Each structure stands twice: as C-alpha cells, then as structure tokens.
C-alpha cells in the first residue's frame, strides 16, 4: 500500500468525504438489463456514484482475473485458449471474488450478466450463500425501432472520437467532422444487420431473465426511450 504521506491532502479529504457520505447509504444489489443502445452505459456510472456501489462488468472482470493470474483467471484463460466459452460457474466465481473488495461493501451493479436464466439461478445461489439477494433488476425497456434509429444514425470521427447522429446531433456538413473536415465513419457494430442479430440474441436469451426476476417481484421497468436526465429521475424514484 502506498504511503499516505505522499497522497495529496485534497485527495485524502475527498476520499474521506466520499466514505462518510457512503456510510449512510443503504446496501443495494442491482442488475441492469436492456438491449444494446438502451442507455445502461449512460446510467450505470450515475447509479454507482449516487449509491456508492461497485460496477461489475463481467467482460472486464474476466480480463482482469486472467491478467492477475488468479486461480479462476487461469481456468478462464485455458477455456479461452481452447476457443471455449467460459463456464457460468467460473463467471459466478469471479463475481464472488470481486464482492470481497471494499468498494463492493455497499453492494454492486451487474451489467451484461446474467444473460440466461441458468446464469441468474447460479448468481442467486451464490448470493444466497452470502446471505443476500438481488434487490432490483432495472429493465431498460425500449422499442426495437427506436433503437435502430438511435444506433444506425451514429457516426464518429475516428482520430478524435467526436460522435454525431444523423438525426439528434448532425454534423454541419453531412458525413464530415465539424472541426477537421475529415470523413466520419460508422462503427461495425452500428449497422442495421449487426444490430438485428444482437437484438435477436437479446430477445431469445435475456428476456426470459426478466420474466425470472419478475416472478420474484424485483423488476422495475424504465422507459428507456426518454432523454437520459428523465431516465435518471426514474431510476432514483425506483431506488429511493
């Protein structure tokens, strides 16, 4: 651990204030569910900061476990090198490990997991052993047609990362960056064909997860087509 004497006072104070603020926050264990482009990525950092939760993105956690060469990371790497999917038990084990961190003391946001009912059951079983359960599943409900307009209209300037939208934030001149005049590109994932297959996978695999948690009475349906600030207000109402 680094010597606290070398940490700037302002950083120490802000961390102390953050911890004091977090003390009074209730514990929350949340799952965010929604199709690609539904706004989960916009809302999760806001929820994380507001409720002092840790954000568990399973893809990032797997990569971290592999690079840290943890026991589970080594097993995951073996599976990946064989071109196999990492087993549900391994992923749940990596989540279980992550929950031991101080940053997860007040609870967590899970995003991108569980994707199937079997994964949801395994997650619930692991949490049950810890004497806790999922408190809320935030379902970012949005019509496929709105998503298509949202996603297929996105264009970016590759070198700066500036993003545009043909309808909501168009460039001054169609197809070129406002600042440099260089051509804009569309990400491979932002085409109608890719979106269609991702949505099909979501409806087939993940919608049953919403039904599974609905039966437990923990699902809150959010109107994800609304502007981000309004969705944030909905989230706060649901979690208050």
TrEMBL record:
Keyword Nucleotide-binding (UniProt): yes
Keyword terms: Kinase, Nucleotide-binding, Transferase
Alphabetized Gene3D superfamilies for the sequence: P-loop containing nucleotide triphosphate hydrolases
GO MF terms held by the record: AMP kinase activity; ATP binding
Catalysis: reaction(s): AMP + ATP = 2 ADP
Keyword set includes Transferase: yes
Superkingdom field: Eukaryota
EC category name: transferase
Boundaries of every Adenylate kinase active site lid domain copy: 154-189
Name of a matching Pfam family: ADK
GO cellular component labels: cytoplasm; mitochondrion
EC numbers: 2.7.4.3
InterPro entries tied to this protein: Adenyl_kin_sub, Adenylat/UMP-CMP_kin, Adenylat_kinase_CS, Adenylate_kinase_lid-dom, P-loop_NTPase
PROSITE patterns to which the protein is assigned, alphabetical: ADENYLATE_KINASE
Subunit and interaction comment: Monomer.
PANTHER family: NUCLEOTIDE KINASE
Family that this chain belongs to: Belongs to the adenylate kinase family.
Task of the protein: Catalyzes the reversible transfer of the terminal phosphate group between ATP and AMP. Plays an important role in cellular energy homeostasis and in adenine nucleotide metabolism.
Protein name per UniProt: adenylate kinase
């Amino acid at each position: 651990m680094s010597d606290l004497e070398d940490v700037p006072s302002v950083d120490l104070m802000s961390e102390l204030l953050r911890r004091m603020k977090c003390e009074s926050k209730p514990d929350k264990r949340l799952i965010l569910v929604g199709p690609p482009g539904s706004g989960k990525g916009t809302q999760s950092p806001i929820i994380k900061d507001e409720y002092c939760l840790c954000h568990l993105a399973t893809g990032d956690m797997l990569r971290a476990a592999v690079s840290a060469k943890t026991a589970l990371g080594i097993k995951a790497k073996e599976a990946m090198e064989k071109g196999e999917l990492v087993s549900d038990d391994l992923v749940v084990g990596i989540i279980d490990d992550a929950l031991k961190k101080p940053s997860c003391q007040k609870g967590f946001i899970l995003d991108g997991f569980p994707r199937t009912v079997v994964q949801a059951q395994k997650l619930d079983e692991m949490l049950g052993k810890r004497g806790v359960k999922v408190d809320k599943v935030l379902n970012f409900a949005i019509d496929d047609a709105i998503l298509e307009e949202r996603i297929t209209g996105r264009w970016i300037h590759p070198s700066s990362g500036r993003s545009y939208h043909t309808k909501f934030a168009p460039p001054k001149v169609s197809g070129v960056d406002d600042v440099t005049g260089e051509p804009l590109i569309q990400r491979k994932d932002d085409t109608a064909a890719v979106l269609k297959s991702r949505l099909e996978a979501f409806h087939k695999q993940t919608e049953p997860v919403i039904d599974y948690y609905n039966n437990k009475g923990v699902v809150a349906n959010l109107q994800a087509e609304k502007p981000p600030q309004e969705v944030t207000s909905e989230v706060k109402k649901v979690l208050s």
